[in-house]
Every structure is written in structure tokens, then in C-alpha cells.
Amino acid sequence: MAQLSWRPPSPTPSALMPPSYEIAQVPTETVVYMFSPQESNIMLLLPPADSPDTRPRYHISISFNMWNPLSFITTVRKGATDSAPIVAEFDMGISTLPGTVSMGGITKFLKEVLIEREWTKFHWKFRQDARQHIYWERTTNEPGLYHCFVNGIKLASYQGATVKRRPKASPLTVHPKGQPYFDDIVVSLLILERRRFRPPAPRSGGLLEQNAWWS
């Protein structure tokens, strides 16, 4: 007579994934996130306190480039900690080497992917598909205010610091159609703001020309 062996019942799909690991649904409404500095070199992008998912969307950290202390490496991670998956890294600062940005294992020069077409319009062209190229428009009547578009569709808005207004946290408003472009919105905005606050190059000429002063 064959010996019967007992096997435990297979777990249901809901039992395989604890509630804390459930995949958050993409927001279907406009959401106002906040860039919130946490420490001297760390900033989080936080959703509203009443959001269905209150976990930080991005962890942003800055470190020195050890070979060039006047240049800084910014690391953008998707999540709340420094062990979360890396979305992008960019290196820029005072250097004779051109700044770079890396996403998805691809590295490009900053001057190739964030282009100022007009004084108030900046195109982000990292993606190979031109239909995914987003652009930012800076308003002329309100300093520090930007709007982000793709193919004429508004994706997001950002209110940055000004000479007189320097809040600890800065709002990033993302519309539903901007959610698929979230990585590009955050990375391009961080680079754009770093450029906005960079000091001018020396006027003395010599070795530190304008194109070699800031990467």
C-alpha cells in the first residue's frame, strides 16, 4: 500500500505579498509633492500626508567627486533610503571636464541632454525616442516658477527658491499624465536648478573660460 504524504495547501496570491509590499497604484489626480531636505546632503521627495501611499518617492543625495572636490555627484534613488534602486546619477560642478548624467546604464554629457533653446525654455533629450522628450518653461513674471510639458501636454510645475523666498521645502506638482515621466521630471529639474544657482565664470579669460568653468 502506497504511503500518503501530506502537503500544506498552497498560499493564496494575497498571502504571498505582505501588505507593506503591495504595489502602489499610480495616482489618477494631481499630486503636490515636496522636496524636503533631511540632512546636510540628503533630500526626499515626499507625497502629501493624506496620500494613500505616504512613502517617499525619491531619495536624493550629494557627495564630493573625490578626483575633483569642486564637482559634486548627485544620486537619485527611487524610494526612501540610500539602498533603494538608483534612478540616475549626475556629476557637475567647477571643472574642465564636461558634466555627465547616467540613467539605465547609459551615460551622456549634460550639454547634450539639457538644452536651452530659448531663454525661458529648456529641453530634456535623454531618451532616444523624441516623443518622450520633455521641456521646462520658466515664467518671466514669477521667479523660480517652472512648468513641464511633453508635446504641448502639461506634466508638472515647480516653484523654486528666489532671492527673497527661500523655504526649506519646495513643491513639485505632478499631473496624472506626468506620472510616467516622473524619473525624467525629477532628474532634469535637479540639474536645471543647479544650473540656475551656479555663479558666473570669472571675466579674466585665461584658462577658466566660460565653457570650462561649469560642467
Automatic annotation (TrEMBL):
Q: Name one Pfam family in it.
A: DUF6593
Q: Which residues form the DUF6593 domain?
A: 53-196
Q: Which domain of life is it from?
A: Eukaryota
Could you tell me which InterPro entries the record lists for this protein? DUF6593
State the name under which the record lists this protein. Answer: DUF6593 domain-containing protein
